[in-house]
Amino acid sequence: MTRHIVARTTEIPPGGNKVVDIAGRDIVVFHVNGEFFALLNRCPHEGAPLEKAACVARLTSPEPGIYQRSRVGEMLRCPWHGWEFDMRNGQSWFDPKRVKIRSYPVAVERGDELQKGPYVAETFPVHVEDSYVIVEV
Ligand code: FES
């Protein structure tokens, strides 16, 4: 897999998303609960753009009349027919073994780490303690 820088973290606000083209693939990157998730921007049912999907909670019911919400914002509800998918791995809620969206690994890294060139001068740690400067070599 090749790594691609797709956005600054500030470009995708919490609860928002950004669509990017990577090697001809339309990929949507979501920012939810402090994490980023990347999925193919195409519903496996009839191809709706998932950038328009609602980000909803997982809703379960242990018994009639009792509802529990969890993982708020991490479930995608397709805008065309309402199929739901887990943003974390692309699996559908109704048939997780057979129907899923292609998902991609996402990493967040500091810009200064990404921009390092191939030539790096040797450096040494420096500490200031009281009024003495100490250099470790
Ligand atoms: S296109 Fe997504 S549920 Fe139909």
Mean pLDDT figure: 87
Element-level helix/strand string = EEEEEEEHEE
Oligomer status: single chain
Q: Would you count the extended β strands for me?
A: 9
Q: Sum up the overall morphology in one term.
A: elongated
DSSP strand content:
35-45%
Structural class: mainly beta
Biggest sheet: strands side by side, in what order? 1-2-3-7
Give the biggest beta sheet.
Answer: 4 strands, antiparallel
Rg to the nearest angstrom? 21 Å
Task: Write the topology of this structure.
Layout: E1 17-22, E2 25-32, E3 35-40, E4 54-63, E5 66-77, E6 84-86, E7 103-104, H1 111-114, E8 126-129, E9 132-135
Antiparallel strand pairs: 1-2, 2-3, 3-7, 4-5, 5-6, 8-9
Bound molecules: FE2/S2 (inorganic) cluster.
What would you note in describing this structure?
With 137 residues, the protein is mainly β. It has 1 helix and 9 strands; from the N terminus they run βββββββαββ. The protein has one helix at residues 111-114; strands spanning 17-22, 25-32, 35-40, 54-63, 66-77, 84-86, 103-104, 126-129, 132-135. The protein has a 4-stranded antiparallel sheet, with no helix packed on it. 18% of the residues are buried. The mean pLDDT is 87. Bound molecules: FE2/S2 (inorganic) cluster. FE2/S2 (inorganic) cluster is lined by residues 43, 45-48, 78, 80-81, 83.
